[in-house]
Structure formats: structure tokens, C-alpha cells
Automatic annotation (TrEMBL):
It holds the Pfam family EVE. Gene3D superfamilies: ph1033 like domains (3.10.590.10). InterPro entries: 5hmC_binding, EVE_domain, PUA-like_sf, THYN1-like_EVE. It comes from Primorskyibacter flagellatus. Residues 2-134 form the EVE domain. This is Ubiquinol-cytochrome c reductase.
Length: 137
DNA sequence: GCCAACGTTGGC
DNA sequence: GCCAACGTTGGC
């Protein structure tokens, strides 16, 4: 199993909205970036991911699971763009802020820090475990 | 609201 | 195929 990070502006699609979708999950639509798309194509059902709120709050708020493999993005007719479905697994008891991440030497290599603009990114097993611990799990 | 970083587009 | 111009993202 691999680990990922999904970034969303809460004003556009928030963790609460994701939770409200329940176990069925929801398409992670709208990605129009090849790198991010390619990561989604690599995902498998059952892979886990962090749900990150960008812009206003800048923190990892929850954990999601890939519930459907890569398929065409239903919000466009452009065949280039695919997406996966994800469902909420659980909220982090204590959201982990970007500030905390930047202040943690072990997390200095996270894509979130090094390439802040990438909206779908891989997370290493070590990073995953540490962020979970920081988040109170 | 500003601006740096970065991806994409299009002229040559 | 290069590179300048432009648009978008996201941290601050």
C-alpha cells in the first residue's frame, strides 16, 4: 500500500463535505496537472492519503482512502484528465499544520514543503507514520 | 493582496 | 525544440 496527499481549498471542497459523502466516496475531480494525474493513475484501491486544506488554514485535517481506481474525470470531456475516488476514513484528532511540518526536520523533504503547488503528491511511509503521530493517532 | 514558483502555450 | 510570455497556485 502506498501513501498520498490530496490538497483542496476548503472553500471549494472541504473535509466536512468529504465526510458527508460517507463510505461511497467521491471523485477527486478537477486536477489539470500531468504530474498530479500521473500519481492518481498509480493509485490502487485501499491506498491511504492525507486530506490537506490549502490557502486559508494550511493543515492536514484527515485521512482518506482510495475507493475507486483511476478513471476519466466526469467534469470534463477532455480525455487527458483522469481521477480516482476517495472516501473519508477519519479526522485527525489534532490537525497537523504546515507550520508544524516545516518545523519538523524529519519532514523537510515532504513534497508539501518542497513543491507546494502540486495538488496530489506521494508521501513516504516514514512521513505518514510521523504525521499520524503528530496528529494524535 | 502580493509575489515567487512553476506549468503551459505558442511563436519562431 | 527552444524559450519568452502568460496564467495559476498557494504561502505569506
Amino acid at each position: 500500500m502506498r501513501y498520498w496527499l490530496f490538497k483542496s481549498e476548503p472553500e471549494t471542497w472541504s473535509w466536512d463535505q468529504q465526510v458527508a459523502k460517507g463510505g461511497a466516496g467521491e471523485e477527486w475531480t478537477g486536477v489539470r496537472n500531468y504530474q498530479a494525474r500521473n500519481f492518481m493513475r498509480e493509485m490502487e484501491v485501499g491506498d491511504r492519503g492525507f486530506f490537506y486544506h490549502s490557502q486559508s488554514t494550511r493543515e492536514i485535517v484527515g485521512i482518506v482512502e482510495v475507493s475507486a481506481p483511476s478513471h476519466p474525470d466526469s467534469t470534463t470531456d477532455d480525455e487527458r484528465w483522469d481521477c480516482v475516488d476517495i472516501r473519508a476514513v477519519q479526522a485527525l484528532p489534532a490537525p497537523v499544520t504546515l507550520e508544524q511540518i516545516k518545523g519538523t526536520p524529519e519532514l523537510a523533504a515532504m513534497v508539501l514543503v518542497k513543491n507546494s503547488r502540486l495538488s496530489v503528491q506521494p508521501v513516504t511511509a516514514e512521513e505518514w507514520a510521523l504525521v499520524c503521530r503528530m496528529g494524535g493517532l
